[in-house]
Design a protein that fits this description.
Keywords: NADP, Oxidoreductase. The record marks 76 as: Lowers pKa of active site Tyr. This protein is α/β, with parallel strands linked by helices. 40% of the residues lie in helices and 14% in strands. It has 10 helices and 10 strands. The protein has helices spanning 28-39, 54-64, 84-98, 114-129, 142-151, 170-178, 198-207, 211-221, 233-239, 249-256; strands at residues 5-7, 13-15, 19-20, 44-46, 72-77, 105-108, 135-138, 158-162, 182-186, 225-226. β4, α2 and β5 form a beta-alpha-beta unit. α1 packs parallel to α2 and α7 (198-207) packs across α8 (211-221). The longest helix is centred in the middle third of the chain and has 16 residues, at 114-129. The model has no long low-confidence stretch (mean pLDDT 96).
Length: 273
């Protein structure tokens, strides 16, 4: 079964569930994870230049024998490659490693002030040329989005940022939705820590699902695209078994209430890498 999708502001369909490959090792580990995910119905793969596994991701997609247009492929320009000319070069390098002639989504990985403005100009050109079907940002908070949107020709279509039950950021979620920017969650299951949260364990028992499945279902019902990372076939499969149930409004509110503003990753306001 393939997964449902959402429509981005430009009309492009993006699957609501994808496989994240952050920290998946280049070579057989990432190749096997991606191939298995595609086999069990995933149609979205999220990588980045800095993950250093684009070769393996590209190889897995080719070996899956799925038509390229059936796989929604995302990559990102890393901080040291930001700036107009650097971004164009980095994009070509990513395409080369992924062995494809276009990306479905290309993101500016972190906000880096003026460099990100220059990178965004490059992304707009890549979008105009048809070499990328949608463009967006990652880890941009409201001030970063406002700053970028003041001078851009094309608004970001996606903002991928840290989002999970302990970091809900309701104002950012609302801002993205009100500006037709699709929110996308990284680290949605908190590196597996959702399995230890009593509220999620209780809901898992109620719905006969795992705490991770409860959390991923919550993402989707919040209107957030989600990309859990795993290299274990069983987990990859289980993470996708979230389309046969629905959380009640009352239970959604219980999960919202777990918010503590607690980050797992870096604070986008203090990026020094």
């Amino acid at each position: 079964m393939t997964h449902p999708s959402v429509k981005l502001s430009n009309g492009l369909e993006m699957p609501v569930l994808g496989l994240g490959v952050f920290l998946s090792k280049e070579g057989s580990e990432v190749i096997n994870a991606v191939k298995y995910a595609l086999e069990v119905g995933y149609r979205s793969i999220d990588t980045a230049a800095v993950y250093k596994n684009e070769n393996g991701v590209g190889q897995a997609i080719r070996e899956s024998e799925l038509p390229r247009e059936e796989v929604f492929l995302t990559s990102k320009v890393w901080n040291s490659d930001q700036g107009y000319h650097n971004t164009l070069r980095a994009f070509d390098e990513s395409l080369n490693k992924l062995q494809t002639d276009y990306l479905d989504l290309y993101l500016v990985h972190w906000p880096k002030g003026e460099s990100s403005h220059e990178s965004w100009t490059a992304l707009e050109e890549l979008y105009d040329s048809g070499r990328v079907k949608a463009i967006g940002v990652s880890n941009f908070m409201i001030p970063h989005l406002e700053d970028l949107m003041k001078g851009c020709r094309i608004k970001p279509m996606v903002n991928q940022y840290e989002f999970h039950p302990e970091l809900v950021q309701p104002a950012l979620l609302e801002f993205c939705k009100s500006h037709q920017i699709q929110p996308e969650a990284w680290s949605p299951i908190m590196k597996g820590r959702v399995n230890e949260i009593p509220v999620l364990k209780a809901l898992a028992a109620k719905y006969q699902k795992s705490p991770a499945q409860i959390t991923l279902r919550w993402d989707i019902q919040k209107g957030v695209v989600t990309i859990p990372k795993s290299v274990t076939p069983e987990r990859i499969k289980i993470n996708a078994e979230i389309f046969d149930f629905e959380l009640s409004e009352e239970d959604m509110v219980k999960i919202d209430a777990l918010d503590q503003g607690k980050r797992i990753g870096p604070d986008p306001f203090h990026v020094d890498f």
